[in-house]
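re the bet — no i am not wrong, look at it urself. input seq straight from the record:
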Amino acid sequence: MYQLKINNLSEQEFLSHFWQKKPLLIKQGFADFQDPLDANELAGLAMEESIESRIITNHKNDWQTHQGPFEDFEQLTDDHSTLLVQAVDHWHSDAAQLLEPFRFIPNWRIDDLMISYSTPNGGVGPHLDQYDVFIIQGEGKRHWRVGLPDPTLKQFAQNKKLLQVEAFEAVIDCILEPGDILYIPPGCPHEGYAVENALNYSVGFRAPNQQDLLSSFADHIIDTESGQKRYTDHNITLRKSKGELTNLEVDKVKTLMAALLENDDLFKQWLGSTLSQPKHEMDLAPVEPPFTSEQISDDLSDEETVFERLGGTRAIYQQLDTEVLLSVNGENYAMPLTDLAAVKLLTDNTEFESSALNLTNPSLVFTQTFTTLVNEGIWFNIDQE
């Protein structure tokens, strides 16, 4: 539906020269761009309890943040206001198509699609993000300034829910028109203000920090009742000071803890689970009554059947020594190595035809796993919608 053209660059050239290195203005990255939704549809999503949204206003430099869901849009004034809705790809299938051209970046790095609607001079102010983002201009125009990372740049809170940065020197100063795209790496200060009523689409990327990873790993250890081995010191000797914690003891504790990270099975099970976990709620509708494996096999035997993946689904896999570990929305599924091609088809495509899957000769284990995923509402037969 959307064909991405990164100026005169190939995808690999973009990755080599710009990804996580420097910002890039992509003029007409999407030629003849058509908005997948309008401001009224976006406002409708912002009224839903399960969808994260907010309105930011900046009248006379008085920045205010209002959290959704919204019963009305009194705060969305004729100027100096912005409505932002997170994870629209989870709820709007046409908008979710905007993620597809960016899947030359691995699945586990793609986070969500945030959409904003701004009235003239509306924006969120100068700020930093700690993740990569492609900002697509839809309806209207927006004036953007982007700088390079500057460790001396100070952040401050305009209010309890809005961090901004002080003035910065711009290396990109432009007006985006429909179909233009701005790529901004982590740590680059940027600010954008609507020239006229404007829709913007932000494709954000996930970049967990050490705290996030260690906290998640600790939770996994507790949930799986792993890490039961205790500290031992059967070779302890007398020492002059009762209060000393020796370097040898420090190293032994460090080794005890590191053994968990070096447990390959434990680590990969956790990593697949945590990196495939969605951050936002999903529009899941489990099948009632559930399908049997035989019914799904019948669907798969019809080569014209098309299965589609629910928006927001995170599907990744790891090829291990003796099996393939498929991870979908935080759950792990082990399958034989012979199912590698089938698993690739599942994770690399948002929809597939049964004929393509049948060419991989999937095992019974794969069919049973796929049946579970269909019954959970994660994949569905488009003819049965």
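see?? Residues 312 and 325 are 20 Å apart (CA to CA). told u. also The first strand starts at residue 24 and ends at 26. so pay up
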